[in-house]
Amino acid sequence: MLSGALNVPTHKLVGEIPRVLADSRPYRATGAVTVDGVRLTPRNGASIIVAPSFFKVFSSDAALTVGGIRLSDHPDFSLDTTPSYLCVGVPGELLT
Description:
By secondary structure, the protein is mainly β. Helices cover 11% and strands 31% of the residues.
């Protein structure tokens, strides 16, 4: 390891790097999935990509429903599923 070659102590969490990187892989669904209560159903041969470590859900074409209520269609969307406790700024403020 570079830290050993430089005679610098390694951080105690260095051993966690393989686990963190393994958890960062995205998942691809070709059928319906539910994420945080939102049901996503791919259409027209599209897929749904869920990247939990990045708090993102992507699709080029999917129908979204919550509790059986259909939401408006937005092709080529990216949902941000970041938990509110990780957000910065004023609650309700849109960050740009």
